[in-house]
Amino acid sequence: MAGAKKLYIKTYGCQMNVYDSERMAEALGGAGYEEISSPEGADMILLNTCHIREKAAEKIYSELGRMRVHKEANPDLKIGVAGCVAQAEGAEIIRRQPMVDLVVGPQSYHRLPEMESRAGGGAKALDTDFPEEDKFERLKARPKAMRGPTAFLTVQEGCDKFCAFCVVPYTRGAEVSRPVQRIVDEAKGLVERGVREITLLGQNVNAYHGAGPDGADWTLAKLIWALNDVDGLERIRFTTSHPNDMSDDLIDAHGSCAKLMPYLHLPVQSGSDRILKRMNRKHTAESYLRVIERIRAARPDIVLSGDFIVGFPEETEADFQDTLRLVEEVRYGYAYSFKYSTRPGTPAADRAQVDADAASDRLSRLQALITQHQREIQDAMVGREVSVLFEKPGRMDGQMTGKSEYLHAVHVTAPSLKAGDLARVRIMQSQTNSLAGDLI
């Protein structure tokens, strides 16, 4: 846009933050901004923050310190902090970093254009409320510019589980699900812009209970079946789930819905029932394994991923051995594992902490086992035929890369391919973090 103001957004954390950043850029586009890829020359810098990782707030304050050079070069530059750290810290951000002009929580980013107009010249704008109005409804329709073949689509926000280690209920609020028709309409709009695969997002996405066109609350499975009927949409995924919300109809959908991909992220966090109870997870290792058993009965070739926290307060070596046994039984194709770190305000923050060296040793052993299984599952793909949605050129001339239905990265040498093509590929080689194949 000629004469448009320049907007730079730096996104931290989860896929939902990626989606939120897209919507914030669209909202500010209506206020005359266009997005750029670096902070140099920006008229507004927005940090969309995540509170999941260790010392998240301090890292944002450090990042703000590094942004000072841009403020000094352009006194009219507006700097904003959005997302979960903004929600948790609120006015403290402005107190500690007076150069910040606005702070907006994840439930209020539809108010950004109005906040942007008020901020600057010494005036500050702060909004960390949980407004009654639907922020998605307040945002204008997504623009019609073409985009890549994959997209995120938030369908549910917030969480009512209150795990002892997690800040999400405090930063994102209670569980709220978007109405079915608005999701379907947004999905159709994305398909019109070139999207062929959509990942449905939620802090607890399989607890989805949005209002359907028939007036009843729909489950996630029923929503997936509605999206299955969208012409041009070829693939559906969802993340992140809770074991207690893997309903019968959702498990059945994995076995019968052609567009629902054979990949599921289902965090367990620990294999110890004692630690799971202290985490307030409300499931046991055995109940989790029975859910996995039912999912694999519905879709035997499904690839599973999970989340693990090691060194949770009061965890013993025996508890950790229970986790290793669970990992051996499930055999994850992917997994995300971390040492426990405190989140101020959560129940676990005040408990006796595990020795840091012991936690590091456990993490190393867990990751070695997960890596072994991941490698074995990836190697077993050699010789198989998979469907690959190609997304971008590879590093070599004539090479294209994309994702298989199992979420493995796959690359082939085929100059005729372009982004958005969906093709059958025979896997010929398993490499460090990807698969190589030939077009069929």
Would you give an account of this structure?
The chain has 440 residues and is an alpha/beta fold. It has helices at 15-29, 56-66, 68-73, 84-89, 91-96, 112-118, 135-138, 168-171, 180-192, 220-228, 248-256, 273-278, 285-298, 317-330, 356-379; strands at 5-11, 33-36, 44-49, 78-83, 102-104, 125-127, 150-154, 156-157, 176-177, 197-201, 235-239, 263-265, 303-310, 334-339, 385-393, 399-404, 409-413, 422-430, 435-439. The protein has a 6-stranded parallel β-sheet with strand order 2-1-3-4-5-6. A 5-stranded mixed beta barrel has the order 15-16-17-19-18. It has a 3-stranded parallel β-sheet with strand order 7-10-11. α6 links the parallel β5 (102-104) and β6 (125-127). α10 (220-228) packs parallel to α11 (248-256) and α14 (317-330) packs parallel to α15. The radius of gyration is 22 Å and the shape is globular. The chain starts with a strand and ends with a strand.
